[in-house]
Design brief:
2 copies of one chain form a homodimer. Chain A has 184 residues and is an all-alpha fold. Chain A has 9 helices and no strands. Chain A folds into 2 domains: 45 residues, Homeodomain-like (Arc Repressor Mutant, subunit A); 131 residues, Orthogonal Bundle (Tetracycline Repressor, domain 2). In chain A, helix 5 packs parallel to helix 8.
Chain lengths: 184, 184
DNA sequence: CCAGAGGTGAACAGATCGGTAAATGTTGAG
DNA sequence: CTCAACATTTACCGATCTGTTCACCTCTGG
């Protein structure tokens, strides 16, 4: 299987898992929707869990790339970027097919802390907060670590409520709280 | 089946769904762990989804009762109660078997907005925010509605991060943000 | 032309899924 | 004691689950 085909397989599997959930999406459906036979899939991924891990790696990379780039496009100071994150989130909430955070859902469906999927989901959040902390440091925040963690809480809360309420309002609400935090 | 037995069935099913997830918990396991035969279960709940709805009703009632009572015990002003919510959350995060919010997980596993389970999960959040808004009004907040929504974001973010990180830190971090909001 | 690599569909394990049928307790009221 | 109403056990249904096997197809390099 070429690198392209493999990437395409992971990309399409991502959409299926994102839309239907992990347990609720069978490998027969993955094979059918990707156009790759189950035999081939299992030649490249020993188990369903390994495919899910590959999907999460793709999601981690593409989501972080998208979010960080969008933050840079929307503002040119570190402080402005942290605030602009919530504008970027609002754009995401408005997208067709927005269904919440894939990593929160992965963590919810694979709760065992020893599970590689659970660990990888939290690793994504740690990478986000690390970036926030770097920006907070550049912005000369009093306590960059604490500020980054607080912004993470706001971001996750906004995503969860946006997904559950099927509205985008949470982005603005979270942004107004972030405004308080960054004003100091 | 007596009311006691029925309540006990729902209570034990709740633990199973909470610990293992909804899709990942089969009705055979529910029957085995509750000691109630599958035949009997299906005499009282037409489908698995109906059992899940009953479980969510129990969870909604008992969680709200617990949270609101704890908030009252920890503070005697409306403003203090809203802040004390995060101390109550920290207690919850420290409990053995804490696995995040059951309603977030229900919403993640049943994403269809037309699904009764999805609707009921969000209804729980609306009831919480209504209570927050009532307290915010009593506390004479400038914009009780907005404040209640912001506190909800903080609460949900804290729960998600506490569950994913397997630590309790998020409660204090959220509380310090809430402190900013309530100081105004 | 041929060997080998890699792909395919289809059938197949063996387990489990949600849900049901029928026969066998068990129990309490008259 | 008797009978009706209930609960239970046991087996079963068809569908689906993850994962494998197998016979076949197709392409490529030598």
């Amino acid at each position: 299987m070429s690198q392209n085909k493999r990437a395409e397989l992971i990309r399409k599997a991502l959409l299926l898992f994102y839309r239907n959930g992990f347990h609720a999406t069978g490998m027969d459906l993955v094979a059918k929707e990707t156009g790759v036979s189950k035999t081939s899939i299992y030649k490249h991924f020993r188990t369903k869990d390994e495919l899910i891990l590959a999907v999460l790696r793709l999601r981690d990379e593409s989501f972080r790339n998208w979010l960080f780039r969008r933050m840079e496009e929307l503002a040119d100071t570190p402080q402005g970027q942290l605030l602009a994150m919530f504008d970027a989130l609002e754009e995401w909430f408005l997208e067709d097919g927005f269904q919440g955070c894939m990593f929160i859902k992965a963590s919810a469906e694979f709760q065992d802390p020893n599970d590689a999927i659970n660990a990888q989901a939290y690793a994504h959040k740690r990478m986000l907060v690390d970036h926030f902390e770097a920006l907070a440091t550049q912005a000369k925040a009093d306590d960059p670590h604490a500020l980054a963690r607080q912004l993470l809480l706001l971001k996750e809360g906004a995503i969860v409520i946006a997904a559950m309420s099927h509205t985008k309002d949470a982005a603005r609400e979270a942004k107004s709280v972030a405004n308080h935090l960054l004003a100091n």
